[in-house]
Amino acid sequence: MNKLIVKTEGLKKYYRLGKNTVKALDGVDFSVKEKEFVAIIGRSGSGKSTLLHMIGGLDSPTEGEVYVDGKKLSSMNREQLAVFRRRKAGFIFQNYNLIPDMNVYDNIVLPVELDGKRIDQKFVKEILELLQLEEKLDALPGMLSGGQQQRVAIARAVAAKPSIILADEPTGNLDTVSGHEVMGLLKVAAKRFQQTVILITHDNDIAQMADRIVHIEDGKIVGTYNECPGQKDCGGNLGHNAGREKAGEQHAGE
Amino acid sequence: MDWSVITSVFAAAAAAAMAWKMRRLKKDIYEFADSLEENLDAVIQGKEPENTGDTADSLSGKLNEKLHRVNHILEQKEQEAAMNRETMKELISDISHQTKTPIANQKIYLEILKSRDLSADIRGFVDRLEHQTDKLEFLFDSMVKMSRLETGVIQIQKENSDLVETIGRAVAAIVPSAEAKGIRLSVEVSHPWEMEKRKGTHSLPEQPAGRLFLCHDRKWTEEAVYNLLDNGVKYTQRGGSVTIRLIRREIFTEIHVRDTGKGIAVERQAQIFTRFYREPEVHDREGVGIGLYLTRKIAELQSGYVEVKSEPGEGADFCIYLPNG
């Protein structure tokens, strides 16, 4: 089986609000395998965004540990965390967060350039082709539709070849049809470029497209559903029924 | 006084020389790191690294030499993999070839046997034998297809052609079994997105009525759609209907196959795409639980994906998403 790329242990995040303590996360043990596509669902305020931010090194836990790609995030200093975010994590946000006065191409290669890396033109071209953005390279984000802007954001996240892609409500600003299409592309792109995706959504239809759905309420994981067992393993050997194994695993875990 | 002037001049000169040397050193290091990165990138992308100074006894020379060796090793590994694939290809084609004749012979003998006068119970056995032979034949066919797709023996060949025509061929193949069960088949085509865009400034090639040009692999897409249709007909009761809808959207073209059958429980919707999965209630003639698996594989090889929406008793809506670009 694939190795774990993300692991959290007893993750807690408490906020003080006057006399009250708000438990945004209350002991979350969560892990993601390499190349897995996981959706985290939950109501707003359930702690799902907090969890994503912890995994991305954007926020630090009150208690517990986050490991990404074998590295403990709490042992990194600010500078190391910044490098970690740049190299290991690709972010996709609800409001796209593209730079308005840079064209599509420059937006996409920005993280690579920031990291001082050479731009892999062949790879960028492949991404552009897959995300159907070849004709929009010179356009400014403001000229694009929401769906197109989010495709640029996906391309930007993928271009830096991160270990994990973290998507926070990527379809939140899109209508149902474009949201669905953008999700489809994210799924296809993650598969093609062998990337791990953790996605937050409150839309059940969108979550259905993931390999696994994790349900969070009140800072705790309340359920896990394997939507598509074997989805990632279909390229496996002939005699090896990965799908059944995975389904079996799930039952055993329940 | 003279001494202090001389000393300071010397000091200044020494400092300048040091600074110059430092700058040279720094430049050298940057150049070294740059060329190293360039060569590493080349190796990562499977290209030959540049062999600047690999004969010189310098650090970059030594590293370049090593990189060349790494590249060489990678190339050899690739060749090995290609050879393994070739062996696999031969093995698969041998299996498919060598099993064809015995199965065909078996079928002929069964035919002959059936034309004889047989007692009722022997006839029953012969029928069952025939059924199993058909199943075996289908199983071999499917497994050969599956392994060819999986080992990359078959390359998906995408070309811009009429998707409606491809669907038409799949539909034509399913008509007999649909007719036998009295199931109505219908096809709808719509391009909501283009309609909308054409109103604006966008200029898109006009799609002639009843046609839909899309870059896709005709043969395998037909197979994928046929598998969905086959399932639709199989799981729909007499008098039901199977509807094919093509919808061209902004990014993907959707091929929906909707039936009015018994539907699929949510907890099984993921499993149906795995290899050799069979719905527990159905164990009829053909079908070895490979169809949906193949369909998904075919969609994925074309950078698309497959989805199902269904509720028990409400029929099922399978959809293949193929990218427009």
UniProtKB/TrEMBL annotation, chain A:
SUPFAM superfamilies (UniProt xref): P-loop containing nucleoside triphosphate hydrolases
One of the record's GO cellular component terms: plasma membrane
CDD domains xrefs: ABC_MJ0796_LolCDE_FtsE
Gene3D superfamilies for this protein: P-loop containing nucleotide triphosphate hydrolases
GO MF term list: ATP binding; ATP hydrolysis activity; transmembrane transporter activity
Domain called ABC transporter: residue spans: 6-243
InterPro entries: AAA+_ATPase, ABC_transporter-like_ATP-bd, ABC_transporter-like_CS, ABC_transpr_LolD-like, MacB-like_ATP-bd, P-loop_NTPase
UniProt KW keywords: ATP-binding, Nucleotide-binding, Transport
Record Pfam families: ABC_tran (PF00005)
Signal peptide stretch: none
Annotated protein name in UniProt: ABC transporter ATP-binding protein
Automatic annotation (TrEMBL), chain B:
EC number(s) recorded for this UniProt protein: 2.7.13.3
Keywords carried by this UniProt record: Kinase, Phosphoprotein, Transferase, Two-component regulatory system
Superkingdom of the source species: Bacteria
InterPro entries recorded: HATPase_C_sf (IPR036890), HATPase_dom (IPR003594), His_kinase_dom (IPR005467), HisK_dim/P_dom (IPR003661), HisK_dim/P_sf (IPR036097), Sensor_HK_Regulatory (IPR050736), Sig_transdc_His_kin-like_C (IPR004358)
Catalyzed chemical reaction(s): ATP + protein L-histidine = ADP + protein N-phospho-L-histidine
UniProt name for this protein: histidine kinase
Gene Ontology MF, one: phosphorelay sensor kinase activity
Broad enzyme group: transferase
Ranges where the Histidine kinase domain occurs: 94-325
